[in-house]
Amino acid sequence: QEQLVESGGGLVQAGGSLKLSCTAPGSTFSINYMGWYRQPPGKQRELVARVSGGGRADYADSAVGRFTISIDNNKNTISLQMDNLKPEDSAVYYCHADLIYEWGGYEFWGQGTQVTVSP
Fold this sequence. Notes:
Elements (H helix, E strand, L loop, with lengths): L4 E3 L2 E4 L4 E6 L6 E10 L6 E7 L4 E3 L7 E6 L4 E6 L8 E11 L2 E6 L3 E6 L1
Parallel strand pairs: 2-11
Antiparallel strand pairs: 1-3, 3-8, 4-5, 4-9, 5-6, 7-8, 9-10, 9-11
């Protein structure tokens, strides 16, 4: 089973920026949606932003105006540019992909990448 390949994340000071990327390996599918979720310590996983294969983006209220998600369909890759980061953005960020194959749809999750924003 192919896995999502995540990159980015790390430690940054408040007000700084980070970029997360996620690639869905292979080519025998089309993208319904890909996006990023996050899970702060002791809390539930929540949507940060997602983008459709057609480029339509949805954002959590907390991400509006600070985060930008984009998709490169040729590379099956999404990127999340996170600017003006705040300590409350600290969490494990998970890539999610809702892919469509000839035989049907399937969802994948990445392993997660830590984002830590210091005050």
